[in-house]
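Onboarding guide, step 5: your first structure request.
Type a short instruction followed by the sequence, for example:

Predict the 3D structure of this protein.
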Amino acid sequence: MLRPKSMLLPRLLKPWLYRVGLTTAPGLLFRVQHLRMHRRFGTHWYWANLRNPRTFNERLLRSKLDAEHAHLSHLVDKALVKDWVAARIGRDHIVPTLGIYEEADQVPLASLPRPCILKPTHASGHVIILRGDDEPPAHQIVCEMSQWLRINHYHITGEPQYRGIQPRIICEPLLGDGLGDLPDYKIFSFHGTPTCIQVDLDRRTFHVRSFYDSHWHPLDFAVRYPKADRDITRPVHLGQMLEIARVLAADFAFVRVDLYCVDKHVYFGELTFHPGSGNEPFSDHATDRALGDLLMISQGGV
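The system replies with structure tokens like these:
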């Protein structure tokens, strides 16, 4: 889905504005970003303490400041990470790659099999879904993909693992029923142990997000988006999903392992080391603090 032009300009300006903050006062920039997100989307706000971080968000922000994940670019590159994951859990859990392109005009839009999805390998939050009907003109699609290639996600979020990734475009088949709105299972794993599962639904209508523990008991908190007003069906292969997360998270103090379950088969989505870039507000401070206690990142570690 193409973004309105009015949204593209601010997204292109952000890297240049944030670059000044990252160069001169990264800690202040992270605190301001955190405060703005909490005041805009949260029910409470606080000035992040990066000298003595205690909450989950504070610990994530501090890890960005310490550049602890700078050597993990290959794990957030949507193309390169596939081989790393396949070596650990098997190629059958990898979404096939239809093509990787270094320039937007290299993407063969007319011949790509529908439905499919286009996204940048080096950034988050950008997708174009092609279904074969009601698609924007090709020149508009190429224009948006060209904008992607000028983005350095590090200059927006300060997440050092994104700093040196080669900008490319990847095309994959669209999983599920072709509508592009599958349940998205995001497993929070602390020191190799899957602890809670975030489930995102209805992204293109009224985005809701619920949390469950590893036994699929609902957890009574929310993060940025409201909780779903209904019970979410336990995924058929929950046990397998938790084991996949355990394997992929084994080497890290914290990582979120994103998975999909389609036609009773589990597919890998991506690895996320800074959910919401460390800025998304919890519905209550106590949960933010409790997950921070689980994280306990030591300075200089992963």
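Each response can be followed by summary notes, for example: The chain has a mean pLDDT of 91.
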